[in-house]
Every structure is written in structure tokens, then in C-alpha cells.
Amino acid sequence: DAKTTQPTSMDCAEGRAANLPCNHSTISGNEYVYWYRQIHSQGPQYIIHGLKNNETNEMASLIITEDRKSSTLILPHATLRDTAVYYCIVRVVTTNAGKSTFGDGTTLTVKP
Amino acid sequence: DAGVIQSPRHEVTEMGQEVTLRCKPISGHNSLFWYRQTMMRGLELLIYFNNNVPIDDSGMPEDRFSAKMPNASFSTLKIQPSEPRDSAVYFCASSPKEGRFNEQFFGPGTRLTVL
């Protein structure tokens, strides 16, 4: 699995867009970019994933650069409940989950 | 939908004791995952089942750990004997898609403390 690099922490004002970057310069052609988040004392929560096209769902948007070496998760209107650790994971979608970890992620703090 | 159910939510035991963690996946989901989370190592995948069959246990730390899935609605993770370094939060997750690292639904976790 390709390695990802994320900033350790970020702040965002409530109501503003939160843009969380992720670098994955060694990504291969069949690897997807996944985003999960973990709110304190809860299990991780799936947010969104994509291969090369930009994706949007009810939670967030995922922007993947044309060379696929980086991506940005966008929370369009951050709320205090979006304060969490956000994990960017690059994975091949195969029948074998392999030995995967979530990495250290970005701690997003949404402030009033 | 009740989501993924894990029990117990908290477990405190003494070194050398057997510990059994339980998981009930979301009904209809084909895949089940056990993870461990610690401050030092983050969130690690321990083992993955597909249609009740263990597919990949390469993340299981050692022989003291074992996992079973006797049917589609129940799985256990057993540690025997337990050691203080096993203290962690253990998460179970299930996925509706077979064999894919896709949308996984996580349970609330079991916080294990081994004294």
C-alpha cells in the first residue's frame, strides 16, 4: 500500500469549509484513496473514497489531483461535531485486506 | 439498524487471564474485521473474515491471539494468556461488500486493560 502524509493538526472556524490535504506520491494505478474519521471515544467512520475522479456525497467532497499524487477532503460547512481525527488511506481494492493501518491522521479542531 | 455491536465495552483483567471479545456485525454484511488501536501503533488490522472464513490473519500479533466466526452474526477475538501490552481498544467492523476495503462500519470498541 502506498504511504500517505497528512498534517498533524488543523483548525477550522465553525461554518467555514475545512480542507484537509493528503500526499500519496507513490500511489499506483489501481489504488483508491479512502477517507475515514474518528471522533473521540468512537469507532472510525467511513467518509468517502475515489480513484481518480472527484467525488461528492452528503458528508464531504474528495478532490484528487490529475497526477493522483495528492488529494484534499473538503467539509463544506464545518460544525463543532466535525472535530475528529481524519485518516487518509490508500488501498488496493482486492479480496485480500492485507496488513493495513490507518496511519496517524490529521486532528481537525473546529472552533466556534 | 443497530449497527455493529461489541461486548463488553470495557474489560479489566489480570495478566495471564483469558479474555474474549465479542462482535455482532450488521445483518447482511459479508466481511468482518478486527482492529486494535493504541497510542503507539495507531489503528491496526488484526484479521479479516469473508463469509465467515478467515482470509488474512497476518496482522494477528502472536499465537496468544485467536479469532473465530462460527456464523454470519457472531465473531470472537480471544487472547490467552493476556499480557499488559495487550491493553488497547479493540474494534470490530463489518462491510457489505465482499473482500473489499470499502465502506466499513465500525463498532464502538472494547477498551481492554490488562493489569
How would you explain this protein's 3D organization?
The complex is a heterodimer of chains A (112) and B (115). Chain A is mainly beta and 112 residues long. Chain A is built from no helices and 9 strands. Chain A has strands at 9-13, 18-23, 31-38, 45-50, 55-56, 61-64, 70-75, 84-92, 106-111. In chain A, β3 and β4 form a beta hairpin. By secondary structure, chain B is mainly beta. Helices cover 0% and strands 54% of the residues of chain B. Chain B has strands at residues 5-7, 10-13, 19-24, 31-38, 42-50, 53-56, 65-71, 74-79, 88-95, 105-106, 110-114. Chain B is globular. The A-B interface holds A 32, 34, 36, 38, 42-46, 49, 87, 89, 91-104 and B 4, 33, 41-45, 48, 50, 55-56, 58-59, 91, 93, 98-109.
Main attributes?
heterodimer, A: 112 residues, mainly beta, 4-stranded antiparallel β-sheet, 9 strands, globular, B: 115 residues, 7-stranded mixed β-sheet
